UniProtKB/TrEMBL annotation:
Cofactor binding remark: Binds 1 zinc ion per subunit.
Species, as recorded: Vanessa tameamea (Kamehameha butterfly)
UniProt superkingdom: Eukaryota
EC class of the enzyme, as a word: hydrolase
Homology family: Belongs to the metallo-dependent hydrolases superfamily. ATZ/TRZ family.
Primary gene name: Dhpd
Amidohydrolase-related domain span: 64-440
Name of the featured protein: Guanine deaminase
EC numbers, comma separated: 3.5.4.3
Purpose of the protein: Catalyzes the hydrolytic deamination of guanine, producing xanthine and ammonia.
Co-factor(s): Zn(2+)
Lineage of producing organism: Eukaryota, Metazoa, Ecdysozoa, Arthropoda, Hexapoda
One GO CC annotation: cytosol
Reactions accelerated catalytically: guanine + H2O + H(+) = xanthine + NH4(+)
GO biological process: guanine catabolic process
Length: 444
């Protein structure tokens, strides 16, 4: 089959301030978008395109192309616990459910089995890029790397670092931890796969001492790796972190003093950040992975996403399984809108996110938060083709065929179709998924 393909139809271009829908053609060659133009131009010169040997895919009016979903924060090893223990707040939930489960990943066969299913499930839900926490285990986490490579998912994958004792005995001594992180980074680079990269992953300030975090910052710098962690998720967590770091006035200062923010850095949650901390995020160019499902289920709080965006913090969405109860970024998108609406209803100054803004967070916003918006998220020339083909009327679609429309003109009609997918759609509507031009799901 030709590796040159032309898509012709409606293409959605999310942006924070201005989502655009265009009727266009898009040429993908060897995974890269090489040309984009008006649909009329394609039809005028259709014969020439056919002669040049392109495979041509004309979309139906009830189909559209959009950038792939980006999950900025999830825990692959926690999937066997999904939907369990969510009546407890964060620190109890970690001790009772999460650390005991994660300890099981010393078993590489168990790890390989879970991880291949997790990657498949995310791809099925349209997640073309995921930023994963693995576990403490070097070999186990390499199984996640192998699964992502095998299934052609774009991914950042971190071997979790922890050196502070807990009841499950789930931690390493500092020397062993540093040795294994270095080996992990080397091994991932040895795969020489441009879709999968290692990410330095201190779990959070309760699991890592400052000495370890400082040394992890150096490893990140030496290897040009992203750093991911959790910050300011839960009030008890913050209290504990400040009590063990009395010289610091904020959680962000603890990480700042350890040099984490001197790297490309994405922090999950940021529910309770102060104005000064938000300033630090902006100054350092650090990102937030907003995880509305887990913030609600673990009773952590309502993250003021609009405020973060107004302050120009980079924000993407995370499913944060299994603190979150759903693997789909489409679900996270809706829950981000709900949380934002609830904040506004409770008297917040900022307006709620609308669906177009939420769709931006789920796609280009996530790419920006992971520092890869030069590669993906815009469906424009020179970007890699990570995309979803959405079909409103696919088999068993949850979206009704016959509905009332108030649209005036073609662009509004397309917008209505996207809006209905955002509010009602699910994996059944995500009929094809592409990562760097390769089709990784096809139920068309
Ligand atoms: N903080 C430290 N570890 C975790 C985790 O696994 N999930 C969440 N939601 N928060 C954390
Ligand atoms: Zn998390």
């Amino acid at each position: 089959m030709s590796n040159k393909i032309i898509f012709v139809g409606d293409i959605i271009l999310p942006n924070l301030s201005n989502l655009k829908c265009i009727s266009a053609y898009l040429i993908v060659e060897n995974g890269l978008i090489t040309e984009r133009g008006a649909k009329d131009y394609f039809y005028k010169y259709q014969d020439n395109f056919i002669k040049r040997g392109y495979q041509i895919k004309i979309l139906e009016p009830h189909q559209f192309l959009m950038p792939g979903f980006v999950d900025c924060h999830t825990h692959a090893p926690q999937f066997p616990n999904i939907g369990l223990g969510l009546d407890r707040p964060l620190l109890e939930w970690l001790d009772k459910y999460t650390f005991p489960l994660e300890s099981q990943y010393s078993d590489e066969e168990f790890a390989a089995n879970v991880y291949s299913k997790v990657v498949k499930r995310l791809i099925n839900n349209g997640t073309t890029t995921a930023c994963y926490f693995g576990t403490l285990h070097l070999e186990g986490t390499l199984e996640l790397v192998k699964s992502a490579i095998k299934q052609n998912q774009r991914a950042f994958i971190g071997k979790v670092s922890m050196n502070i004792e807990n009841d499950a005995g789930y931690y390493n001594d500092t020397e062993k931890e540093l040795r294994e992180v270095k080996t992990f980074v080397e091994k991932v680079f040895e795969y020489n796969n441009d879709l999968v990269n290692p990410v330095i992953t201190p779990r959070f300030a309760i699991s890592c001492d400052n000495d370890l975090m400082k040394k992890l910052s150096v490893i990140a710098k030496q290897n040009s790796c992203l750093i991911q962690s959790h910050i300011s998720e839960n009030k008890k967590e913050i209290e504990y972190v400040l009590s063990t770091n009395p010289e610091c006035t904020s959680y962000s200062e603890v990480y700042g003093r350890c040099g984490l923010f001197d790297n490309k850095c994405i922090m999950a949650h940021g529910v309770h950040l102060s104005e000064e901390e938000i300033d630090m995020f902006v100054r350092k160019g650090a990102s937030i992975a907003h995880c509305p499902a887990s913030n609600t289920r673990l009773k952590s709080g309502l993250c003021p996403v609009r405020k973060l965006l107004n302050c120009e913090v980079k924000v993407g969405l995370g499913t944060d399984v299994s603190g979150g109860d759903n693997a789909s970024i489409l679900d996270a998108l809706r829950r981000a809108m709900d949380v934002s609406e609830h904040l506004n209803l409770l008297g917040g100054k900022e307006s709620a996110l609308n669906w177009k803004e939420a769709l931006y967070l789920a796609t280009l916003g996530g790419a920006r938060a992971l520092f890869i918006d030069d590669k993906i998220g815009r469906l424009e020339v020179n970007q890699e083709f990570d995309a979803l083909l959405i079909d409103l009327y696919s088999k068993n679609s949850p979206i009704d065929k016959y509905t009332y429309s108030v649209a005036h003109g073609e662009e509004e009609e397309i917008l209505e179709r996207v809006e209905r997918f955002v509010y009602l759609g699910d994996d059944r509507n995500i009929v094809q998924v592409y990562v760097k031009g390769k089709k990784v799901k096809d139920i068309l």
